[in-house]
Amino acid sequence: MPHEEPLPFWLVNVPRDLWPAGCPEFLKECNEKDRRIIGTPDDEYDLLTWDEVKELVRIDRVDKFHRVPSELRRYRHFTHRLVKEYGSIMRFMLDERLKWTSMEPRGRPFEYDSDVKILYNDWPYGLDPAIVHLVVWTKFELEDDPETGLSTPESRQEIEAYVQRTFGSKTKEFVWFKNWKSLKSVHAVEHFHVMLYKPDEEFVREITGGDVPMTEKFVAS
């Protein structure tokens, strides 16, 4: 049998009748890690279970969270378009998602609700569908250790108290984590992640203000 060459990464998970003639502009500057993920067939990608999520958070290996290959491709397309239209992802986040005209916090960390906004993660990782992935955005800084890039003990304590207060009485199973500085896709607006397992849908609607993630709105063209 003739040897079949592997598909270029930018054709994987794309229906043959939609194959582009060359690598799309939004994928040309992908790093090696993203090329490898995008070049993996979706049906070979294993969604993370809740136990796996909890373990990765426990051992602080949040770098192991990846998007489903076709979703990562759509994410790259989306952010490429954003930079062209808004100048930066941060500008889009402030203007369209957070709708914050000022980044000046009203008070101390977590003192005022107006300094915090909870939204869906627009492009969640490849997780069991029973897991809801939210992002908590804040106008105030949450201190990191300058040497390690990880949250300071004081900062972790502040976040833990907020998460327990906000989610603990409504959801039995949840975890939170703050990305290492090197992993953040939006550096200029402070945020951390909360994952809920089988939460009450009405509670999620209420706490996010009926938010809808961008992955459900974005139509590639």
TrEMBL record:
GO cellular component: cytoplasm
Region forming the signal peptide: none
Coiled coil: none
Pfam families assigned to the protein according to its UniProt record, in alphabetical order: DUF3605 (PF12239)
Alphabetical GO biological process terms: N-acetylglucosamine metabolic process
Cross-referenced InterPro entries: DUF3605
Xref: PANTHER family: N-ACETYLGLUCOSAMINE-INDUCED PROTEIN 1 (PTHR35020:SF4)
Identification of the protein by name: N-acetylglucosamine-induced protein 1
Organism: Setomelanomma holmii
